[in-house]
Each structure stands twice: as structure tokens, then as C-alpha cells.
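In the laboratory, one determines a bound structure by crystallizing the protein with its ligand and collecting diffraction data. In a computational setting the workflow is compressed into a single prediction: the sequence and the ligand go in, and a structural description comes out. We illustrate the idea with iron/sulfur cluster.
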Amino acid sequence: MYRLRFHGRGGQGMKTASRILGAAFFLAGFEVQDAPRYGAERRGAPIFAYVRASRTPINERGIIRRPDLIIVADETLVAIPAAGVLAGITARTVLLISSAETPEVWRQRLNLAGPVITLPRSGTLTDPHELRFIGAACAGAAARLVGVIPRDCLAQAIRDELAHLGAAVVARDQEVALEAYDLLAEHAGCVAEIPETPADTYEKPRWIDLPFDAANLAAPDIFAPASSEMVPTGLWRTVRPVIDYERCRRCAWICSTLCPDSTIRVNEEGFPQIDYEHCKGCLICMTSCPSHAIRAVPEEEAGKATG
Ligand code: SF4
Ligand code: SF4
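The predicted complex, in C-alpha cell form:
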């Protein structure tokens, strides 16, 4: 069986990537499970999706705890423990990261013994509005690494899964996915197929009894007032909303009210100001600004501009 886990942020197409890869496995003759896992958060929050594929019926259920391949669409997630990117990694797990840095840098940074492969962002994916296609790139790369999915099954899976979005979207996703598939040709088949664990080898978890405290002692952070401000949700952002004050008409009741995280304050002159420590980059403010005074800048680019 193959056990694969995609990690990314809401809006980067990880759910779609798992569906495409699942469909491609199916077309190649495998039994498949694929499912995403995310909470109530919107764009920018860490999510993961997983795929199991086997030549025989799959009896395993639930999230994948010991993945054979971890695919990371957004390298900033690796540093966030809550995202669980490295959960269950073993010496034989292949780690694929979408990153401009080398595998060696990542191996040393994470102190990993197992194989690490990087997927440089496609030269055609520089437009921030195209970042959602990163999911297709990850699906194409994963299809190549398992080595059992022919190119035409990948292309057909994209057609089957995305046909409802129109021919142009299908064509672009195919282009991006097949580019990644070709790019990783030298690593084809590096993810090993592992036999399903027989049920009679199941080991019960070693439970630890914890003392039972009253809720206000056991979870003081949750019960303390105004604690959400301590969570730097700005780390989730992949694109930054930037206000052009020349175009802004000071109708800040619009953007400041619609921001789901109340991160837009209004200054004494009536201009909106974004708190980037907490803005998670959902871009609701950009889409609702009647003057088109807010634009989206990729976080990497914005970070360089502000030093
Ligand atoms: S909605 Fe747009 S124009 Fe109005 S205050 Fe906000 S940024 Fe400025
Ligand atoms: S400031 Fe804009 S992008 Fe940031 S969280 Fe609020 S609505 Fe979303």
C-alpha cells in the first residue's frame, strides 16, 4: 500500500491534489481512499489531505500516521508544530517540499536521515492569482515519485476531477501537473510500496494516566480572556493585502467590518491599517474594497520589500 499526505494552506488546492492523485491511482488500477482534513478556518489555515492506494482492498481507516510520502506545498508550515507536517516521519519516508532551497539545506535544517526532494516552484507560477495551481504541481510530483502512475492517467484524472471548472482550468492544471511530473523523472519510483500491516500485529497504545484537574486549571489559556491575540495568525499568510492609500476613499467601515479577524483598525484620519501580526491573508478585504485599493502581494515579495 502507498500512504501519502499532502500539507498546505487553505486555498492552495491540497484537497484537489489528493482527489487528482486518488483518481490517477484508480485509473492505474489501484483501490483508493482520499480525504482532506481541515477545520472551520478559511484561506491560509494549515490543512492536510491524505491518499491511500493499494492493489488489494484497503482495510485501514482514519488519518495516515506513518506516511510513505509527505508532500509540503508551503514551506512556511514546516516551522508550525500545529500543522503536523513532520508527524510520523520515519527514516524511509520521502519528504517532498515545494521550495527554492536545496534538499541538503532542508535535510540539515530538519535533522532528517531520510530522503528529501525539493520541487522548485514552476517558472510559470509567479502570478499570485495562480498559486492555487500549486496543488496540481504537487499531485503531478507525487504521481511521479510513486512511479506507478502513467502520464496519461494523471492527465485523465485532472480532466475527470476538474471538468466542471471549464476547459481553460483543466488545461492549466494539466500543464502545471505534467511539468512537475517530468521535472522529477530522476526520482521516479523512489516511494516504496509497503505491505498492509496485518491486524494481528496491532499493538495497543501505551496509555498514560494524567491527573484530572478542574477545567480552569487544565486549560488556563483557553479560559483566559483575550488570549486569541497571542496567536500570531499572520504566520499563516501566503499573500499579503497591501493598501494603496492614494486610491483609498476612507470607507473603512467596509474593509474593517468584513475582515473576519478584526485585523483592520481605522486611524484618526479615517484610513484603514492592517495588523500584519494577525492578518491571515484571506483577502476578503481585497475582494470587498469598492475602490480596488487593496492588492495581493506574495508574502515572499512583500517580505523583501519591507526588509
Ligand atoms: S474598503 Fe477599500 S477604499 Fe474603503 S477604506 Fe477599505 S481599503 Fe480604503
Ligand atoms: S486584513 Fe484582509 S486579508 Fe487580512 S485577515 Fe483581514 S480580511 Fe483577511
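The longest strand covers residues 46-54. Keep in mind that any predicted model is a hypothesis to be tested, not a measurement.
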